[in-house]
Amino acid sequence: MTKIIRIGMDTSKSVFVLHGVDAAEQPILRRKLRRKQVLEFFAKLEPTKVGLEACGAAHYWARELRALGHEVVLVPPQYVKPYVKRNKNDAADAEAICEAMSRPTMRFVPVKTAEQQAALMLAGSRDGLIRRRTQLSNTIRGYAAEFGLTAAKGLDKIEPLLARIAAAALPELAKEMFATYAREYARLKVEITKIEAKLMAWHKDNELSRRLEEVPGVGPIGASLAAMKVPDPHAFGCGRDFSAWLGMTPQDHSTAGKTRLGVITRAGDEALRRVLVVGATAVIQKVKQGKGQPSPWLVALLKRKPPKLAAIALANKNARIIWKLMVSGERYNPARAAAARGEGVEVPSCTSGTPCSPPSRTLRAAAGDGPRGPSLTAAALGVTGPRQVGTEKRPSGRTKKLTLKKLENVAPAAV
Question: The pTM is what?
Answer without folding.
Answer: 0.75
